[in-house]
Amino acid sequence: MSPSNNRSKEPQELPQEQWDFLPNLPLLSGPTIPTVGRRFFKHSPTSILKLGSDDGEGIMTALAHSILAPNRTKQGLVLTHQPGTPLVQLWPSLTPLQRDAVKAELCRLLVRMRSSRFSYYGRPTGQPYLLFSEFGTETYVCCASRSEWDDSRIRALQEHAPDAEYTVALERVQRSTAGADDWDRPVLTHGDLSDRNILVDPDTLAVTGFLDWEMANIMPAYFEYAAARLSGGHQPAWRKELLEVLRPVLRCECDTRRREDLGVFDRYTKTLAAWDAVVDVERIAQGYDDDCKWTFEL
């Protein structure tokens, strides 16, 4: 679910298993199991076989520690079956106090997950990073530094920006260091924190896992927030709730660093403003335009 300490993480080598034919396994289906391009099978009482995945998803799933390190097969992943109910099924029946408890637990886990430090933007072993966009899934070269990351996003911006003047203004935002220290540090980023992808124990309301690490990357600290703002896949009501989780995540991180540097004034407000500004960069870099109303919702 999340890293257990602050040391730099690299995924362990994944064990290999190959089959000459697909075992006769029962197909899983339901509102929380999308079937486009992927299929899920009951592999054992404690595991699920996911077909249609790739090495990158296996690496990011193992790195995330949200599910025990998967076994990479020739065609898919064998994943440990996490107990819990998708939040999308529970949320309508929860009281306001119960919803607040779930959001507080999500905040705690995301702060923990983001505490590990990395030295690159992309995926382990130099693999490229993947992003959703208006045009589908796009692949970008792994970046070894903040300057390489900026160059990568500016190239995407220039490809999609409507005019040169607007591009120059957004390039300035991308290269800005207006945010507080560490506002752009590389952290583990899920990238698709839909209520379909969050498992919760229906009795205790403890968050038991995050599903679908396909779009996970090592990204700047602001990117989980940008992904939530830009995701047209989230229902408007859930996007609002998710942003009410991610802002407290930032506040927790800022409060921790404020204790280390009491001379910093209102780090949270300054950093959140920087996060909001860079959403405008990603809106254009990912091919969306100013008619995408959901990206303006705060």
Describe this structure in words.
The chain is α+β, with helices and mostly antiparallel strands and 298 residues long. 37% of the residues lie in helices and 16% in strands. The chain contains eight helices and twelve strands. A five-stranded mixed sheet has the order 1-4-5-3-2, with no helix packed on it. A hairpin with a 6-residue loop joins β10 and β11. α4 (146-160) packs antiparallel against α5 (164-174) and α4 (146-160) crosses α8 (267-285). The protein is globular and about 55 Å long. 37% of the residues are buried. Mean pLDDT is 78; it is low at 1-8 and 65-75.
Query: What is the helix tally?
Result: 8
Strands across the major sheet, in which order? 1-4-5-3-2
On the 0 to 100 scale, the average pLDDT is 78
Q: pLDDT below 50 for ≥5 consecutive residues: which ranges?
A: 1-8, 65-75
What percent of residues are in strands?
A: 15-25%
Shape: globular
Class per helix and strand makeup: alpha+beta
> How many individual β-strands?
12
Helical content band: 25-40%
Terminal-residue CA separation: 27 Å
- Radius of gyration over C-alpha positions, nearest whole angstrom: 19 Å
Main beta-sheet strand count, sense and barrel state: 5 strands, mixed
Could you spell the SSE succession in H and E letters?
EEEHEEEHHEEHHEEEEHHH
